[in-house]
Amino acid sequence: MRLGIHLPQIGRKAGPNAIRRAAEQAEQLGFADVWTSEHIILPNGAPYPPSPSFYDPVLALTWAAAYTSRVGLGTSVLVLPMRHPLPLAKELATLQNLSGGRFILGAGVGWLEAEFEALGVPFHERGRRMDEGIAMMRAVWSDDPVTFEAKYVPAVIDNMRMQPKPEKPIPIWIGGTSEPALKRALRYEGWHGSRATPEQAAPIVARLRSERPDPDFAISLRSAWDGRDEGALRARLQGFQAVGVEHVLVEPFERELGDWLAAVERIARAGEGMLS
What we know:
This protein is α/β, with parallel strands linked by helices. It is 40% helix and 19% strand. Helix 1 (16-29) links the parallel strand 1 (2-6) and strand 2 (33-36). The N and C termini lie close together (10 Å).
């Protein structure tokens, strides 16, 4: 099993120095990849997420890529229906090429209706817009020239060109545990679940693996850690491994950068034998 670590790009700990130091630390410790999350705009006083301060996930990964050479780069998750697929496709292809092909697109439909309203995106069309958006991005990443008939995303693409193409295909891991999310994940390169116990993950993993036994299909989980018990964390990681989870992203709870970096050291100890 491989381990990833979330970058400090949210809340008061976030900033250029924090992202750089955490990315360098993750690479030195042998983590497989580093990850960022997304919210663009939040209602004032919203109980969750706990902070409205989110560094842009793609730019934060680009910054991290500039200071590293091996560690993978992933989003957990980009809310694809909130973004127009064409500029996003350009950004992600650029990140893929600047990083030497290290990017994983973790993608989800989102859940915060007020955020969609602020962006002028129909909340109740988000599943259909996500499917069409992925198809549109893959078309401009592969076809040259490209023609694409859009139904839900406002776009007229007729005999047009977008370069550069990604130098290496960008794998798409779908987040979520709903039935539509699991069916969507099976159509792409992986599933990226969140905050499940090994016992809760086991039947999902069994179902996904029964339909996608190919080794190129990734099964990943995001799991937060409160920093209290390294032994409990190690047992949880071993539990995930036992039920067939192949990748775990661990997100520390700490709010100060020094505490965050110390927690990552402890996560590395708990994951001994799972790091490269």
